[in-house]
Amino acid sequence: MGPHPAVAAIRLAVRRVLHDVLTEYIEQTEPVARLSHATTSACAAATHAAHATHTAHITTHATRSAPVARPVAGVRPTVAARTTPAQRPTPSSRPAPLVLVACSGGADSMALASALAFEARKLSIRAGGITVDHGLQDGSDLRAAEVAGRLTALGLEPVEAITVRVGRDGGPEAAARDARYAALDEAAERHGAVAVLLGHTRDDQAETVLLGLARGSGIRSLSGMAAVSGASRRYRRPFLQLDRQTARKACLVQSLPVWDDPHNADPAYTRSRLRHEGLPALEKALGKGVVEALARTAQLSRDDADALDTWAADADASVRDESGELECAKLYALPPAVRRRVLRRAVIEAGSPAGSLFARHVEEVDRLITGWRGQGAINLPGRVEARRQSGRLVIRQG
């Protein structure tokens, strides 16, 4: 009898991601393996050549007094060194890659941790866990230590509980997220992890899309969370096609203890209000399937956003003069969606932080192209300034 359907679903999702991670790791390390193999082969060839020279010297000396040897029928002399199995590059010659899971102790991340521990054993992958203590609640350090103990009990190694200091920039939710990702990045670098798994579900994706709609964000924001993101494709989200109830059910049938963060039910937080009030109201008004539809919207939006980003990257060089300045007339000729992406890229390259650069900032810069009436310079985040000058758009910091 196989595992419960919920357990089977989470394990399959994790298995697919681990296969991708392992394939990418092998492709990245293959040149190193080939180089090692080539070096070994060269050494073997050199040794063989030296041995052949030495043998030839002895043979020449011996033939002065000995009769000439006749070849034996059916026997061919060996003239080249052969690579032994030990010299060939094999998967076992590579160190096993390390994959970490970020675990808060909630149902989503505990289900993810259990699936990682189960699947990693079968794929020559080392599996570890990280839990982050944000220090925002009394006893959070004890809670983090407890979660770390559960990860260790699952067989994960290494396991760490990392304490962070949460700032205030962007509000409490954004500040906590920034501190958490900074800690995960540092841990991944320190341990040499090739990937970090995150437990975001389809429900989380739907909430992210709605938050983007409420803010009046562009199509990139509506595309939600990517299945793969971060530097060197570090972050992987196996559960974006699974709902939250599947993860909770998997924990229940495996008797995995979970911790429900009280912040997730606190109406002081926007996402919490959306989860417990907004989405239920939408489902009551529109019927079931809202979460699935929003998640599908995210994927379609991501495909469109990726295509537009590629177009904008290709168009960037064509709208600059010989000195590299942006030409307003050429920018004006671009479709608005492409032009705004070119402008956003230029502002970020000039030093404006991407996280602080909003759609309204880009729209103001865009008006220097489409609604020019002699207006002055525009101040942007990061002390970046954009101004129109002699038919050029000049974007500089300071």
Please characterize this protein's 3D structure.
With 398 residues, this protein is of the alpha/beta class. 52% of the residues lie in helices and 11% in strands. The chain contains twelve helices and ten strands. It has a six-stranded mixed β-sheet with strand order 3-2-1-4-6-5, sandwiched between helices. The chain has a four-stranded antiparallel β-sheet with strand order 7-10-9-8. Helix 5 packs across helix 8 (270-286) and helix 5 (202-214) packs across helix 9. The radius of gyration is 30 Å and the shape is globular. The N and C termini lie far apart (67 Å).
Break the fold down into its secondary structure elements and pairings.
Elements: H1 5-62, E1 98-102, H2 107-120, E2 126-133, H3 140-153, E3 159-163, H4 172-191, E4 195-197, H5 202-214, H6 219-222, E5 228-229, E6 235-236, H7 244-253, H8 270-286, H9 290-316, E7 326-327, H10 328-332, H11 336-349, H12 359-370, E8 378-380, E9 384-389, E10 392-397
Parallel strand pairs: 1-2, 1-4, 2-3, 4-6
Antiparallel strand pairs: 5-6, 7-10, 8-9, 9-10
Helix pairs in contact: 1-2, 1-7, 2-7, 5-8, 5-9, 9-11, 11-12
The radius of gyration computed from the alpha-carbon positions, rounded to a whole number of angstroms, is: 30 Å
General shape:
globular
Share of residues in helices = 40-55%
Following the backbone from N to C, one meets helices and strands in this order, namely: HEHEHEHEHHEEHHHEHHHEEE
Q: How many angstroms separate the termini?
A: 67 Å
Query: What is the tally of beta strands?
Result: 10
Major sheet, described briefly?
6 strands, mixed
